[in-house]
Amino acid sequence: VPDAPAVSVVVPAYNTARYVAEALDSVFAQTFGDYETIVVHDGSPDTEELELVLAPYRERIVYVRQENRGSSGARNAGVLAARGRYVAMLDSDDVWEPRYLEVMLAALEEDETIDVVYPDARIFGDSPQAGRLFMDVFPYEGELTFGSVLRQESLVFGLVTARREALVNAGLYDEELGSAEDVDLWLRVIARGGRIAYRREVLARYRRRAGSHTSDPPWVYGNGLKWLDKVARTMELTPEDRAAVERQRANLRALLRLHEGKKAFFAGDARGAIEGLTEANAVLRSRKLSLLAALLRVAPRLMLRAYNLRDRFILRADTKV
């Protein structure tokens, strides 16, 4: 494409009018300058506010507006509209450090075997993990492989920069998956012979916020099970990989029961809480859960009060479901 930029920055926007200016400012502060910025308005309910915020940026962005298709559909629309050889993903509530593009593009230019690369990031926002680094919370050493990604031993930070062709050839993000769409795509990239790499430099800030889909455990676990069903159905798996899928299925079902038990606890249903924790612990085998279930049988009201005090004075965050 004549006069095409080296990289196309894809920014999906859904109900993030209060954050998107900070995200875009971080793009325009990059030390690497050969890029275009594509903002995909994904049928957001805050359209009026979003477009007011975007107004000062409109001459500097490519603006794509569509009916709501979810985060996968918004990213796909951005990738398909991209003119760059590379595409860089930036969620509209996250932030890049100024050298993000410089370092990511250098990695891809220096090693043609790399198809996708990502940096470390600092977590901020509404999370007990705020202030920590992504790679400290999810540590991993060595090369990413199909097996390590499948077993989620290596978690790929979602603000990747990738060769556009590699994502298109792998089929882009699956719009039928509500979550796990990232890891699903990374598996398909690797299965086609692609390579995913990382750099340990902290080049982004990853916002965790209440009210986002990823803060809704049943939504995350349910979609995780849907993804595992797809993997088992569509991918060529070794016996070891298939066993790993079944273990993850069992863990996600247990986590769903744990969440349901916590929900019953906060609703004052001690019996439902004990049942949920006990069923979950048959898989998770946690001494802590065994102790909690035992304490719930003896003093459920005291347990709830203790939980509230912990949230208020120690975590300083509401961890109720």
> Quick one: overall form?
globular
Residue share in helix = 40-55%
The average pLDDT score comes to: 90
> Strands across the major sheet, in which order?
3-2-1-4-7-6-8-5
Class based on secondary structure composition and strand pairing: alpha/beta
The main β sheet shows up as: 8 strands, mixed
Which ranges are low-confidence, i.e. pLDDT below 50, for 5 or more consecutive residues?
none
Number of helices: 13
Spell out the helices and strands N to C. EHEHEHEEHEHHEHHEHHHHH
What Rg, in angstroms, do the CA atoms define?
Answer: 21 Å
Q: Would you count the extended β strands for me?
A: 8
Q: Please, could you describe this protein's structure?
A:
By secondary structure, the protein is an alpha/beta fold. Helix content is about 50%, strand content about 15%. It contains 13 helices and 8 strands. It has helices at about 15-30, 45-55, 70-80, 100-110, 135, 145-150, 165-170, 180-190, 215-235, 240-265, 270-285, 285-300, 300-315; strands spanning about 5-15, 35-40, 60-65, 85-90, 95, 115-125, 160-165, 195-210. It has an 8-stranded mixed β-sheet, with helices on both faces. Strand 2, helix 2 and strand 3 (about 60-65) form a beta-alpha-beta unit. Helix 10 (about 240-265) packs antiparallel against helix 11 and helix 11 packs antiparallel against helix 12. The chain starts with 6 loop residues before the first strand and ends in a 6-residue tail after the last helix.
